[in-house]
Specification:
mainly beta; Pectate Lyase C-like; 16-stranded parallel beta sheet; single chain; 3 helices; about 35% strand; about 5% helix; about 575 residues; 15-stranded parallel beta sheet
């Protein structure tokens, strides 16, 4: 059969197969210089590609038409480098006079449209998305490096509108825009995981990320040395983002050096904020008219004029199992609350410093509820732990603290605006009126301290060495250094000293049936009760407090919790 006849034969076969709904097998298409590759430009390869095809881009630097402003055309195609982003560079050579970006996803692309392992640099867009523009689509962007891209308005490296791209294992370096120096999203549900944002900047909001009306998900992302006027790393507007295990280090802003939330309801779990600096409020986090939820987050070494760790303004914040260590501010070393409703549960605040309120500064009608928290080694001229002051405007607030510890700062609470402060079942240095309160050494395992950093005369470079604020116990204390249980020679008076109707939660046995005070009370790391040498060799049914006897004490505990639910 002649070559011409063979071509006609296979063409007829494909017509039959296509008519039967059978797809052609996926192809691998190569891009690169020279005749050994199928196409010389990426766009030409995409124009020829069909769904399911894979385009391999050879090592080299790609510039000019066909290698910038590349449109995926709605195709479910993988475009990937041959040997990673360091070897495959898309240089857009964009400028304000001649704007160009890297890629466009604007034809309903989904997760099967994949861009993997390339560097995109020197993009410039007017107005949005210096390197990648994504509208009404949800592509996958993986293992890419986006650096030194710019946008005239928002999204220096990437802009998402009504979009839900999945961005994973990408690096965003030194991108810039008016807002959203690296990434900007308007509506949609983008997901970013294992991404790094370094030295991105914005003139107004979101040095790394600007997000508006989105339900973005950020997982295990790191933000270092980003800057903006508001939200040095992240600015969220009317959103409900979910951030898990993200790190914010050394970011800077006027307000919200780590994150600024405006009219938003974000959820942060396991996130850390360290050494961020805000000239105004919120060294780590600034919440304005927002209702954030924080679980297991840490704030260390952050600085601001007010709210070294967090500033809450006219909103409602919920924090559980969070730590604030060595933060500084003029007002509220750890936190400042302004006309807000704030609830803290199982939180630890230690070594925070301010002129007023080393721990939490409350003003203008703030309602504060503290349960099972530890305030230790904080310092301030007024209110080492808590301060209430409305600057003579007389808008008193309220505070309710239960099962808490306030120690080692002196002048722990300061009330300068006649706020209503109710403290119960707490260990307060210097004493405080209220049911169940007392003033005793809580016997912390190992208190933290400030290190002078070899410059005793310069306090500005001092740093806080975090301690271990678990309670000592002869019955058993959790050692956070080696993650084991150990026994001490003394037992803290804060063990089994909480409100009798407070749930003991996950406290390990023997727990006395009454919750411990402080940040670890009611948790699996609570210090165990000690009733002397054990008199029984096995657990006794009905022995609630673990003293190896079933008696009136057990019945009293049971009655206090009758019909209650966790």
């Amino acid at each position: 059969m002649s070559r011409r006849c063979r071509k006609r034969h296979w063409a007829a076969v494909w017509v039959v197969l296509l008519a039967a709904g059978v797809r052609a097998p996926a192809r691998t298409i190569s891009v690169g210089p020279g005749s050994s590759h199928d196409f010389a430009t990426i766009q030409a390869a995409l124009n020829d590609a069909s769904d399911g095809d894979r385009i391999i881009v050879a090592d080299g630097t790609y510039t000019g038409n066909g290698n910038r402003d590349i449109d995926f055309l709605g195709k479910a195609v993988v475009v990937q480098s041959e040997n990673g982003p360091e070897q495959c560079i898309i240089d857009c050579n964009g400028s304000q006079q001649e704007p160009h970006r890297g890629f466009l996803f604007q034809n309903a692309e989904d997760a099967n449209s994949v861009l993997r392992g390339v560097t995109i640099r020197n993009g410039y867009a007017i107005p949005y998305g210096g390197a990648i523009y994504c509208r009404g689509s949800g592509p996958t962007i993986a293992e890419c490096k986006l650096c030194e891209n710019r946008a005239y308005k928002i999204g220096g490296a990437m802009y998402n509108e009504l979009a839900g791209p999945t961005v994973t294992d990408c690096r965003f370096l030194s991108n810039s825009a008016e807002s959203g120096g690296a990434v900007a999203s308007a509506s949609g549900e983008p997901m970013l995981s294992n991404c790094t944002f370094i030295a991105n900047s914005a003139q107004t909001g979101g040095g790394a990320i600007y997000s508006s009306l989105t339900g973005a998900t950020l997982l295990n992302c790191t933000f270092v040395n980003n800057s903006a006027e508001h939200g040095g790393a992240v600015f969220e507007h009317r959103g409900s983002s979910r951030l898990t295990d993200c790190k914010f280090v050394g970011n800077g802003a006027h307000s919200g050096a780590g994150i600024l939330n405006y009219e938003s309801e974000p959820v942060l779990a396991g996130c850390s904020f360290e050494w961020n600096l805000a000239v105004g409020g919120g060294g780590g986090l600034y919440n304005s008219y927002s209702e954030p939820t924080l679980v297991g987050c840490g704030f260390k070494g952050n600085r601001a004029a007010w709210g070294g760790g967090i500033e809450n303004y006219a909103g409602a914040a919920r924090l559980s199992s969070c730590t604030f260590a060595g933060n500084r501010a003029d007002w509220g070393g750890a936190m400042r609350d302004y006309a807000s409703s704030v609830i803290l549960t199982n939180c630890l605040l230690s070594g925070n410093i301010a002129r007023t309120a080393g721990g939490i500064y409350n003003r203008d009608g703030t309602e504060l509820v503290v349960t099972n928290c530890t305030f230790a080694d904080n310092s301030a001229d007024q209110g080492s732990a808590l301060a209430f002051d409305s600057h003579k405007q007389k808008y008193p607030g309220s505070a309710e603290a239960t099962n808490a510890i306030f120690r080692n700062g002196g002048n722990e609470l300061w009330n300068n605006d006649d706020s209503q402060i109710v403290i119960r079942y707490s260990d307060v240095q210097g004493g405080w009126p209220g049911e169940g309160n007392f003033d005793s050494d809580p016997c912390f395992a190992d208190a933290g301290y400030w290190d002078a950093n070899s410059t005793a005369l310069d306090a500005n470079d001092d740093f806080w060495i975090s301690g271990d604020y678990h309670l000592k116990s002869r019955g058993g204390r959790w050692n956070q250094s080696n993650r084991t249980w150990m026994n001490d020679e003394v037992s803290s008076p804060c063990i089994d000293a909480g409100c009798i109707i407070s749930p003991v939660g996950f406290e390990p046995f023997p727990n006395g049936g009454i919750v411990n005070l402080g940040a670890y009370g009611g948790t699996a790391e609570a210090a165990k009760s000690f009733f002397g040498p054990r008199t029984c060799q096995k657990a006794v049914a009905g022995d609630i407090n673990g003293d190896c006897r079933v008696d009136l004490a057990d019945f009293t505990i049971m009655a206090a919790h009758w019909a209650s639910r966790r």
